[in-house]
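Explain this one:

_____
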Amino acid sequence: METEKELLQQIVDGDRNAMRRFYDRYAGYAMATSRRYIPDIDAAQDIVQDGFVKCFSSIKKFNYQGEGSLRGWFLRIIANAAIDYIKQQNQLVFTEEFPEKEDSQTNEEPDVDNVPMEVINECIGKLPTGYRAVFNLYVFEKKSHKEIAQQLNIKENSSASQFSRAKQMLAKMINDYIKAH
């Protein structure tokens, strides 16, 4: 398989087959990223398509920094487009909902080794929108609470508290799944 650098150069040169190979290589990652933010499959697909258009239209500005940098850049485009979509739909709701403390396991980080990734992603998708956005930006996009606060127009401590609550709610959902299986 060709390297990202080779594929990038072919796309920059206008090779439509290279664009197709790029799409085939990264569409699955893009959809997974989009679905982490937007559980609605149709909206997530729209985000992915828009992300590819934005990527191809601005790819000449991309600064290649080694293998994996093109994929990372593209997935940031998808994540940002998903956040923008949530904001446009006025779906970015921050909640004070807090997981119930039924037992001591609620606060324990679950052992996810035997939990299928689809189940984890489904649990992330069930988080309230604000929790889900902050969780994804912090965990997957590696943004600081300061950066998240700026991107979502919230206070830094709100980002931290939303993340903490998201982790607890997610832990409870996963622990419930583990108990049931």
